[in-house]
Specification:
Elements (H helix, E strand, L loop, with lengths): L25 H12 L8 E5 L5 H8 L4 E6 L2 H14 L3 E5 L2 H7 L4 E6 L7 H13 L3 E12 L10 E7 L2 E6 L6
Parallel strand pairs: 1-2, 1-4, 2-3, 4-5
Antiparallel strand pairs: 5-7, 6-7
């Protein structure tokens, strides 16, 4: 995987093969950040990266200037890899080893962008649980978005707070946001 833009643009990161991950492809990541670039000043964004795996998305936010990034994953080796890479890049990514669902139930940390990249085989109920926990616990800051990456075989468009989706190859990003009063 490589960092697409920003301070670390072009930097390749080699994750150990033993990690139980499926990193977001460079093509999908570039498409996602092109969308986000039109909505946010990254240096003003607080980011929560759920099911962070290799930290691929967190590094991209750090490269683009985000200062407050928290990566959550239940796998100790993933967390160790993110911590090691964060030190090598000399950037600021906080890591928390936790089950994402338990974390979302307890945390009061709010973010502008919450990105979730759970296993593609996650059940519809668990995908919906992510959405519900984020919105019921009011974890998004004003004008914030929850973005869930999933396979093209999964449809989340019937969930509350669904806004839109974008497809890149076999990956889809579904966007969720609070309805704002007009």
């Amino acid at each position: 995987m490589r960092i697409i833009s920003g301070t670390f643009k072009g930097k390749r990161i080699w994750a150990p093969k033993k990690l139980p991950v499926r990193p977001t492809t460079d093509m999908a990541k570039e498409g996602l950040f092109n969308i986000l670039n039109n909505h946010y000043y990254f240096d003003d964004c607080d980011v929560l990266d759920l099911f962070s795996g290799t930290g691929n998305i967190s590094y991209e936010f750090a490269s683009r200037g985000s200062q407050q990034i928290t990566a959550i994953d239940s796998n100790a080796n993933c967390i160790k890899f993110i911590e090691k890479t964060t030190r090598e890049l000399n950037c600021n990514i906080d890591t928390i080893k936790s089950d994402v669902f338990k974390y979302l139930e307890k945390t009061r940390t709010k973010a502008d962008i919450i990105f979730a990249d759970p296993p593609y085989a996650l059940s519809q109920d668990d995908f919906e649980k992510i959405v519900n926990l984020v919105f019921e616990n009011k974890l998004l800051l004003e004008d914030g978005q929850l973005i869930i990456e999933h396979s093209a075989h999964t449809d989340l468009s019937n969930f509350d707070y669904f806004s839109n989706k974008r497809k890149y190859g076999g990956s889809v990003f579904s966007f969720f946001e609070s309805e704002t009063e007009v």
